[in-house]
Structures are given as C-alpha cells and as structure tokens.
Design a protein that fits this description.
By secondary structure, the chain is mainly α. It has one domain (2-183). The chain contains eight helices and no strands. 34% of the residues are buried. Residues 99-120 have low confidence and may be disordered.
Length: 184
C-alpha cells in the first residue's frame, strides 16, 4: 500500500499539489534516512556531515528538482544520486579548507560491501565512478544506486527498467571493475 501511495503522492506533487508534498514527507523520510546511512557507512570517523543533515540537504534538493517522477523507485534513484553529489561536494569543500594542513583521508571502508576493497577518498570513488560512466554509463548508475542509494536489486531493476538478474550481472562486473580501479 505504501509503495503505491508514494507513487500517487509523487505524481500529485509534481502536478502542483502542495498537500501531496506534506503527505509524502513522512512516508519517504525513513527510507531517505536509510539511504543516507548507507551512503555514509564508510565515511571517516568524525565526519562533519551527519546522516540527518544529508537527508535534509537531499530532500531540499529533491523538492526543488524539476523531475517528472515516474514512481517511487525513480524518486529514490534520484535521491541516491543527489546524496552522492552532496557527499562529494562536502568532501571537496573539506579538503579545500584544509589544503596544505595534512588533510585526513575520508575513507570508504568496505566500499560497496566488497571484502578487501581498499579504502578510498570520496573524491577517488567519484573519479572512478566517472571513469566507469564514460566506459559504461549503465553499470556506473547501478553501482551508484547500490552504494549511495542502498536500493535493492528489485528497486534498481524497477528504476532502470531492467531485470533483477541483469542488475546482478552488471553489479558484479561494476564492483570488480571498481575494486581494480581503487587498487591502482
């Protein structure tokens, strides 16, 4: 029931119904918080951006976005991308503020839940995702939805119009590719 309600409210909101946004907010807040927690799980200890702040920044950006929401999965896919951008921008601003002062690395421990994946700075991960995007945009998007969005295989499949088995195959390739890139 909640999934179809979220989709209905997204469509109503996009049509200009401000009451739909008010009704939508509590329905998506918990899931956005879960996505933010997933996106931040490998950040350095003492990270200055808290999970709740990431949720709020992402939601504000989503509220201002001119997107024709297809459904709930589409909304969460865009939310995942927005959270990635916020984390990358925050990391770049933090490094710029400390440039020359022994900048601590913002590690992504257990990047992509791949055992043995080396830690990397958010910027390094973003650079690797950009390289993958140039090579294979769909694999980069799947990786982004999985890591930054924490979407399930079924949710990624729905958001991208693919089968869950295709998501599995593409994600395994993307994780292996990323592991190799971060090891270099």
């Amino acid at each position: 029931m909640e999934r179809s309600e979220v989709t209905r409210l997204l469509v109503a909101w996009r049509r200009g119904d401000e009451n739909a946004l008010a009704a939508l907010t509590p329905l998506v807040y918990r899931e956005l918080h879960r996505l933010a927690h997933s996106a931040m799980r490998g950040e350095r200890p003492g990270h200055t951006l808290q999970t709740t702040a990431l949720v709020h920044e992402a939601f504000l950006a989503l509220a201002d976005a001119e997107v024709d929401w297809a459904d709930r999965a589409h909304f969460y896919a865009i939310a995942a991308r927005q959270m990635r951008r916020i984390l990358v921008n925050h990391g770049e601003a933090h490094r710029a503020a400390k440039r020359g002062g022994g900048v601590p690395h913002a590690s992504l421990d257990e990047a992509l839940d791949v055992v043995g994946t080396p830690s990397a700075e958010v910027g390094e991960l973003d650079d690797a995702l950009r390289r993958l995007e140039a090579f294979d945009a769909r694999k980069a998007q799947i990786l982004e939805l999985h890591y930054f969005g924490g979407l399930t295989y079924d949710e990624m499949a729905a958001a991208l119009g693919l089968s869950a088995s295709t998501i599995d195959t593409e994600l395994r390739f993307a994780k292996a590719w990323l592991r190799q890139q971060l090891a270099d």
